Amino acid sequence: MTTTRREFVQRSAAGALALSLGPLAANTSAATRLTPAQLSALRSAVRGTVFTPATKGYSAASQLFNTRFNGIDPPAVVRVRDANDVREVVRWASRFDIPLVGKSGGNAYNGASTSSSAVVVDVGSLSSVSLNSSGVATIGPGALLLGVYATLARRGATIPAGSCPNVALGGHALGGGMGLAGRNLGLALDRIQSIQAVTAAGELRTCSASQNSDLFWALRGGGGSFALVTSMKLRTQKVRSAAWFFARFPKGSRAAALEAFDDLAPGAPAALTSLCTLTSGGATVFGQYFGSEANLRKLIAPLRNIPGASISVGTSSYLSLMTRWAGCAEGASVAQCENIKPQPFDASSIYVAKKLSSAARSAFVSAANTGATLVCDSYGGRINDVSPSATAFVHRNVRFSVQIVSYAPISTARQRVNSARKLIAKYGNGQAYQNYSDLDLSSPLQAYYGANLKRLESIKAQVDPDDRFQLTQGIRS
Ligand SMILES: Cc1cc2nc3c(=O)[nH]c(=O)nc-3n(C[C@H](O)[C@H](O)[C@H](O)COP(=O)(O)OP(=O)(O)OC[C@H]3O[C@@H](n4cnc5c(N)ncnc54)[C@H](O)[C@@H]3O)c2cc1C
């Protein structure tokens, strides 16, 4: 297995110029600047570092992973030291009526963790990971996924989450958190037992099924519009190893590979989570199985009938599998692997709830021919065991999600993604994954939250009536 999910997603970046034409619908209104009195009050309130356009390090502090947002200059970025700093920033912001946005790993597709008018509260340093004897992990929102896997693996445990090493648990789990253990262990947010968060009133609160339960509900899927998360407790799973498979198909077999994936993946035993990618040059189907290699071979046998199939199957220690899905170079340390160069990209997503027809499969192939990559993540299993209204994450009755993505100069990327989306949107259920947010959606909140939107708006009005947390495509009071 030499090619990973991330490489597939990033393949279309090959040769891309680091040219950013700037954001389209992100928060680009004229940059707000803090007055000297506001700035001095902020600096005295926190122990962490406050970056402003006049400070050394401001550019790096305000940059996101997606360089299309490089043109957005927030009034300040506060790199907090601890939860108390977060509380102090919120109290300061209420005193001067200044909006805030949270930032953990800076990977928001829609640029929601920066703003030209809101101060950025960067909780990246709240990144500790610990595990108690009952198998409950306490993890800071700034912890990057590969580091989380590595720390937990030393104790023979894991949480389900995405495969990209530089994504932080904070934004990831607040929006869902889908990865190669998803059908077996659920989304990252399904494992959360409680959350510590600073509310708009400037109070550090524990949110769980029994305390601040509305806020707990909203934070699991509703994103960062409700409070600033300072730590989470998640139920871990014991695991030492898993089986994996990786299948490649030539260009002419893309429709057949997609058909086999659609037949196999969403209804497979929950122990198997698989993905299918389509590009202009070919297809892959790959996945992870919590069981024996022999059983896995039986489950994926139909893939062998597809012309040109090349399939590898194996078993790995769990951490080595995570580092391979993450696309780490052989022998790279966790820190080296997490250090990915920022790039411009555009993306969108749809959810497929019905089996694809032959016309739909042809449309998917045409969509891949635009130059965008389609990445289909199978749902079902434990993800769909949860009711759509049990958390704010509504997408529980679907077969798979399709991420449509292009790493390229932003005008090219956007044109590819929008053309591809147009071709396949009618085969979706109208919803979109909030972690693959898209600035070009016409009704984004409806697409991300569906039937849960009303309750989210009502909770926002209760917990943040002054709209302290103002995110691009966020829920507003
Ligand atoms: C290369 C790449 C690969 C990815 N792979 C996957 C994948 O396999 N599976 C998957 O499900 N997703 C994946 N994602 C999407 C990822 O889950 C989202 O981009 C996620 O929002 C990133 O979280 P972050 O904390 O890193 O980013 P940020 O930009 O810091 O945060 C994202 C959002 O959450 C809010 N937020 C962040 N921290 C806090 C906090 N502490 N309190 C309140 N609000 C906060 C921000 O304001 C913003 O709205 C991938 C993204 C990238 C760039």
TrEMBL record:
Signal peptide: 1-25
Keyword check for Membrane: no
Keyword Signal: yes
Pfam families according to UniProt: BBE, FAD_binding_4
Family: Belongs to the oxygen-dependent FAD-linked oxidoreductase family.
Naturally occurring in which organism (per UniProt): Svornostia abyssi
Entry-linked SUPFAM superfamilies: FAD-binding/transporter-associated domain-like
Protein name (database record): FAD-binding protein
Keywords of the record: FAD, Flavoprotein, Oxidoreductase, Signal
Cofactors demanded by this protein: FAD
Span of domain FAD-binding PCMH-type: 70-239
